[in-house]
Every structure is written in structure tokens, then in C-alpha cells.
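Sample intake sheet
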Amino acid sequence: MVEHPYTNSLIKEKSPYLLQHAHNPVNWHPWGDEPFKIAKEKKIPV
């Protein structure tokens, strides 16, 4: 089993394309309401 130093929320997705980016050192989120809610709460751009 390979251990990765970074895992983002794309690890929960089913799409092979999204899964290939699940260990990028970027805090990627799948498209949906949750990222917009977080951005609004933190007052940061999407």
C-alpha cells in the first residue's frame, strides 16, 4: 500500500478523473454546495 503525504476530499469521488487528483497538494473539492458554503463562511473566493 502506498502512503501519500497529502489527500484531499476528491478521494471520496467515483470518477477516475477526480480520483487521479486526490493526492495533489491542493485542497480540491468536488463541485457542489459545500465548497460555496465554506467560501462564504471564510469570506474567500471560489
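Comment: Helices lie at 16-19, 33-42. The radius of gyration is 12 Å.
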